[in-house]
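SEQUENCE, STRUCTURE TOKENS:
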Amino acid sequence: MEGTPLTRQQITGIGRPSELVWDRFLAICETLAKTGAKYQSCTTNGFSYWTVTDLIREREKAGDPRWKQAWDLAQEHYRDSLEAEARRRAFEGVDKPVFYKGKKVATVKEYSDRLLELLLRGERPEKFRDNVKLDANVTGGVLVVPAKMSVEEYLNQKAEEPDA
């Protein structure tokens, strides 16, 4: 977060980081919602990923679920932005430059059929998934033969034994 002053530990690199309070945690969540990078969101805001996740677990055990909810909501917000960008590229396309003799002469709109396919599979999996039907009937069993004899010797030995 741009307006947040650096801590003494961030400036010098010496000592323990300051306590992770709610406002600083929200700054981490804000960065996470924009970038989707968990580790980088924490370190950018002066804390290790492990410190943050341990604190989330501790607060949840103590009966304060809002820390985990904020973390999960930030991740969900990032996933929504990824999906929105995939939809934009599939439906609206992306302008790609066209070059001739090293100079840009035009742009062409390029749409992503693959992204559209993935979106359809996500929205209507029963209709657009790869349907593979496997029907197998297995009968019989496995013949285990002692290593010191051949299969023929084993079968002959079994044929000579009385039925048990």
